[in-house]
Amino acid sequence: MPIADTQTQAARPSGRLANTGIGPTFSPIDIGHPDYLAVVEPDTAFWSLVRKDSLADVLTGKRFLAAYLEKAEVFAAQMEGLRFGLTPSAVYFNPTERCNLNCAYCYIPADMRAHGEHMSTARLLEALEILEKHFRSVMPEGRLPQIVFHGAEPLLNREAVFAGIEKFDDRMRFGVQTNATLLDDEAISFLTGRGVGVGISLDGRTAAVADRARVNWNGQGVSKKVVAAMKKLRGYPGFNVICTVTSRNLRALPGIAEYFHENEVPACLLNMVRCTLPGAREIKPGDEEAATWFVKALEKTHELYRKTGRKLVVANFANIILGVVAPTARRLMCDISPCGGGRCFFALAPGGDVFPCSEFVGLPDFRGGNLFDDQIPDILKSPAFAKVTGRKVEDIEPCKRCAVRHFCGSPCPAEAVEMNGGMDRPGAFCRFYERQARYALRLIAEGRHDDFLWDGWDADAETVFDLRMI
């Protein structure tokens, strides 16, 4: 993307005027850099870095606007395809409703986690057969769908899960997201031997922090078991850790990042708590404080990278950077509107009910149909799914007026409905996401953004626009 770093001759292009409604509307954004501002065209997510002392000349200069207009249709088409042209290629597969933990922020209702059903092995294999047949008919040849066994706690139904992985190993890419309390040596050997992605959850480097929100039904923490599993997975490339950020562990984030790095975790998620259910809202941190400590944790990962040469990629933030520098390279789809729910992936409950995302599993109004009774294309077009796939940031106040709306996406629709009363409302953490976008742009201005991304992220990237003002 361009860096405009010298003054240009002021000129007014004829026929097209900026910032009047006739042409594009460029929004200057303070990114906390001593020399640069960001200039964003919100509709297309175009951006440029401009020297503060050159801003007026750049925005009124003929070269800048003419160069943008030449590529504007490309930018718009790219964003249109990313937002509305994708179809699901992944499933969050819940093989059980039950969980052996009672975490304070869980989005699955407690009664379901305590007394819910398992999917039988035969039914699970049937479900995978249906899914494989569907994806084979809609996906390019040679590309495999992704199935992530999710929860509740999938390893409570381990026999069925492992049977599914074993049978469909050559036809699907698998992952397992687990609380790690049941991740014994045999399970680790099975999963790593088949290249299955393994995600575990740990909310602190010490039990005193990690066990504040993640406890079993007796109120006891489980972090010691999680740490033991993490150490056994050390060195496995398909391994990641999710840390859910709440008011109970927020100030520990830099230390948590350091701990993950010490244990050679290749990638982690420092996810702000989803506020779909009331219990999570009670431990939601404030936006500004969350942003402050989140950035401190990111800077800690950078400090460690510079010291050791080894990265700990914070995937949810790396995705924000990618949303700026290479939108189509995004790996996660929560921070764009419409989000990925029902559009890039969907969730399957143990009884066969299908939802746009796991966040909706406890919300019957968002049931799109049943995998065993209905056709997947019909489910994807159902009114329940349309509520989510039709949620556009342009319809949400105040998001529709925000310059970084396509770097954020006003997540999450489940939060918007349950916490704020409707799909036309923002989710939680509006100011936090805005701060993330500013910080990402500042890192780009400083030339540090590559240090926060996966190695080789740009191997297949193509430069669409590169204007350097001289």
Description:
- The chain is of the alpha/beta class and 470 residues long.
- It has helices at 55-60, 62-84, 110-115, 121-138, 158-168, 185-193, 207-210, 223-232, 253-262, 278-281, 287-308, 315-325, 376-380, 383-389, 405-408, 413-420, 430-446; strands spanning 3-4, 27-30, 36-41, 46-51, 90-93, 146-149, 173-178, 197-201, 239-245, 267-272, 313-314, 345-348, 353-355, 369-370.
- The strands form two sheets. The chain has a ten-stranded mixed sheet. A four-stranded mixed sheet has the order 1-4-3-2, with helices on one face.
- Helix 4 (121-138) runs parallel beside helix 5, helix 9 runs parallel beside helix 11 (287-308) and helix 12 (315-325) packs across helix 17 (430-446).
- The model is unreliable at 1-19 (pLDDT under 50).
Cα radius of gyration in angstroms: 23 Å
Distance separating the two termini? 15 Å
Low-pLDDT runs of 5+ residues are 1-19
> Which word captures the global form?
globular
Structural class estimated from helices and strands: alpha/beta
Instruction: Describe the oligomeric state of these chains in a short phrase.
Output: single chain
Helix content: 25-40%
**Beta content:** 5-15%
The profile of the biggest β sheet is:
10 strands, mixed
- How would you state the average pLDDT, rounded? 91
